[in-house]
Write a structure and sequence with these properties.
Elements (H helix, E strand, L loop, with lengths): L2 H22 L3 H5 L2 E9 L5 E2 L1 H18 L6 E11 L4 E12 L2 E15 L2 E14 L8 H7 L4
Parallel strand pairs: 1-6
Antiparallel strand pairs: 1-2, 3-4, 4-5, 5-6
Helix pairs in contact: 3-4
Amino acid sequence: MDSWEVVARESIRATLARYNAAGDRGQLARLAACFTPDGVLHYTGTDHAVGREQIEAQLAELSARARDSGRSKYVHHHVAALDIELTSRTEATVRSYFQVLTERGLDHWGRYDDIVVEYDGRWLLKDRKVSTDGRVEGSWADSAEGRTLGATGG
């Protein structure tokens, strides 16, 4: 493996970690900054969001609904099995699995399918498809308000 590949892979991992940490803390502007300016976020139950501003606004609306449901005090994302395929020096596809924990334990789980590109010296999400594969009955993601937000991976 060439040194540029190691740098690219670690930079991609850092972006994906920053995305989940920002989401868990409700720092939606920081989460949106993990996307290119024209990046796209696809998730079940809503129209896809295009661009940082729309991504942040749509997640803010979903987060407010989840807060109002009172179902969870916090969410913690755990991402595993990152399969990073560098398709060029400036683009990669990434597949990974996530599970979301709350104070009650496992809440929901699923997959991320990403296209990541080098943009302005950083590796950023160009396109993220979030698929929720399952949820615990009675969980935050299973609530009427959380059902849509749960599809975002939290």
